[in-house]
Write a structure and sequence with these properties.
about 475 residues, mainly alpha, Growth Hormone, Chain: A, about 0% strand
Amino acid sequence: MASEAGKPSRPVSGASSTAAAVVARLDRIPIWALPYLYIGIIGAGFLFTFFDIFDINVSFIQTCVQIVPGCSPASAANYLGLPVLLNLVGYVIGTLILSPLADRLGRRDMLLVTMVITGLGSLYNALVSDYVNFIIARTITGIGVGADLALVNTYINEVAPSGGRARYTSLIFIMSSLGAFLGVWLGLLLTTQPEAFPLGLPFALAGPGFTFGWRLMYGIGTLLALIGILMRFQLHESPRWLISQGRVEAAAGVVAQMEAQALARVGELPTPSEIPVETQPGRIPYVEIFGNRLYLLRTLFLFVVWFIGYITVYAIAAGLTSLLAALKFPPPEAGLIVAIGSVGFVLVAIFDYAFGELLERKYWLPVAALLTLIGCLLIALGGAGNFAVAVLGSIVLFFGFNLWVPMTYTWSTEHYPTRARATGFALVDGVGHLGGSVGLLVIPPLIPTLGPLSTFLIIAGCLIVAAVIAQFGTATRLRRLDEVSP
């Protein structure tokens, strides 16, 4: 309720609360108003999710040599495309099935389901004995990961303050960066042979007596998933989702707790400003999107941006070590270049958190594409044998494409109404992941013909095209979710 002039606003609840009033009270909260433990809970799950995305980057060379007859470090890139493709097909299957269930059944419970599936897939990966089962395991893991990406971003955007959606998405992304960092460095430690620096890691463990490091990595992933599952039981349901299901009083109770947390820190809250909101369960989420011209056009537009952008993202995130090995970098050195480059991921996640709200979401994308191009050029022009330049390029490269990701996460979820937000994100990000398979299926066989410069220009060029297309999209910064997507 609105406060009297000069008096602090207080949390309210009760049967008189209307859906519009509850959303207005939620939207006026200027800070993160849930327990900060929630950020850790969601972040722990995302740490595992990105560990799973990046653990294949360095470790796949050892995996391929172990389970694919005739595979060598130089040819491993040719076998990487299929497991990545089926992993991303799993993303599509999982996100298109599980995300609509989250729109119908709730965010919290489906966040538990996605983490269980992902953990089971990782355990299967640790136990496989051949290439076919490795691919099947990666597909199962992808089913959980794809839906988890959609649901985490949906949840964060629904509970974060209007002026901080990119900021708090980026805060979770810091945990993502740590997961990626862990996946890459463990791969270097457990799956590459020791080499004198800078040709590798002198204390790496792989060798004739230690060829199962890649299995340990997927076992660690299983443990991380278990931790994520246990922590997610503590989450509240999204109040916006509760309102979309007509459960206004339940939503009012959550918002009252959020107001109390906020008042303890800021002392006074702005006067609520009501706008119309949907208070009843809608149609099937896919019907909500495809039956509405506004959301259909947004979906087609964002899908193109994600599909093209992911060609770049996955060529680097899942395949950079194998690509460098195909370009004549010794595998331990290639892994070390990627591992040091992952520092750029951690740095950009912190940068995103500090500065992400300064610009409209779509304006960050050309900046990210330009940095990605610079990183690609440094690696390509430095070439094998110029370790310092390649490392610098790798850091800039990881900084660039990971500036693109959280801004586009935030921007995409803002384009859909609460009743179909998880489904909308699933359609554009989930199906858009298929673009990632294109880079790793098409580019590696062409490397001998293209050479380093053309290879990396193609990789960076896709992100540039996606960033240019994005400039024709909707501005969402500092706008209320129900205003952007009624």
